[in-house]
Write a structure and sequence with these properties.
0% strand; mainly alpha; Membrane protein YkvI; membrane
Length: 346
């Protein structure tokens, strides 16, 4: 029973780390998959296989190396010199994503709750400090609460779409995009998310003693991510092409279901912002602990304070400026990871 519970916690933490605000809003699925028509079903399958394969290997290698942070793993994979550069880039990216997620939390408070942007930032920072000061176990607990809500939310959306006249669109919509662009999209999407997920997957892999828990947790998590991608694609396809004009596509679908689903949707959006925020801030703090002699809680306060300062730029501005560059370089990381990773998986 204890092993089964650990597997579920690992799977939920993996899903919660990957699935951020862009996923929950539907914008990521629309941009990387749904707009490419019926072929998106196959590219989602490819992306899911990568999430399973690389996710399991990341955690198992971290376990075998007893890695303190993703920096240890990158050095083992790519050698000290290249590993140092990759870790430095990852650190910069993690900080960038941390500020984007914090800004997203402020935006939810401002646009959905009609409170001030600063209130959203400060509430998110306080909650994050309370969780992060308790370590990886607390992060896993938060994901064990947020992810089931998200899974239930996705099930409701699928059931709603099932009765739509256009429910078969996911298998028949055509696309004019080049084949190369369609098949590059899942690699770009998976690369970016996995490169960032190592911030939590590595310390989680090193902490959990049972390798089979990591294996089955990674398998369940990767499959879960794939099912969430497919369910969102299924729902969005039924509303194409009109749904593509909205900044928050899933929000447009939810408004038709009544007030209770709208509240649940708000919780999902904020929950996914928060889980990504704490995951990246945690990974960043672990790496900086290896490079400085500062107390972990002091480092945490510095990271959160700097995130607060940069988040004043705003959610949209940070998103549009940082994500394209991060995605491109993360693809290089994924290629190296596939090429160099030699960890046994059982």
């Amino acid at each position: 029973m204890r092993t089964g519970s650990q597997i579920v916690r690992v799977a939920f933490t993996y899903i919660g780390t990957i699935v951020g605000a862009g996923f929950a809003s539907g914008q990521e699925i629309l941009q990387f998959f749904t707009r490419y028509g019926w072929m998106a079903t196959f590219t989602i399958a490819l992306s899911s296989m990568l999430f399973v394969w690389i996710g399991i290997k990341l955690m198992l290698m971290a376990h075998d190396l007893k890695a303190e942070s993703y920096e240890d793993l990158n050095k083992a994979l790519f050698g000290k010199k290249i590993g140092d550069w990759i870790s430095l880039f990852t650190m910069v990216v993690l900080f960038g994503i941390t500020t984007v997620m914090l800004a997203g939390g402020g935006t939810v408070f401002e646009e959905q709750l009609h409170l001030s942007y600063q209130t959203g930032l400060l509430v998110t920072l306080v909650l994050a400090y309370l969780v992060l000061s308790r370590g990886i176990g607390a992060i896993m607990t938060v994901n064990s609460v947020v992810v089931p809500i998200m899974l239930l939310f996705s099930l409701v959306i699928v059931i709603y779409t099932w009765h739509s006249p256009a429910s078969g669109n996911w298998l028949r919509i055509t696309s004019d995009y080049p084949i190369a662009k369609i098949w590059f999209a899942p690699f770009l999407y998976t690369a970016f998310n996995l490169a960032m997920a190592q911030a939590v997957l590595v310390p989680m892999g090193a902490t959990i003693k049972n390798r089979s828990v990591l294996y089955w947790g990674g398998l369940a998590g990767g499959v879960g991510i794939g099912l969430l991608l497919l369910s969102a694609h299924y729902a969005l396809s039924a509303q194409m092409p009109g749904i593509s004009q909205f900044e928050i596509p899933m929000g447009n679908i939810i408004t038709r279901l009544g007030s209770i689903p709208q509240i649940a949707y708000l919780l999902v959006i904020y929950g996914e912002i928060f889980t990504t925020f704490i995951a990246d801030a945690y990974g960043l703090s672990l790496q900086l602990q290896q490079r400085t002699k500062l107390h972990p809680k002091v480092l945490l306060i510095i990271i959160l304070a700097l995130s607060y300062l940069v988040s004043q730029i705003g959610f949209k501005s940070l998103l549009s400026a940082l994500y394209p560059l991060f995605g491109l370089i993360s693809t290089i990381w994924l290629v190296l990871m596939i090429w160099r990773n030699r960890s046994r998986v059982v």
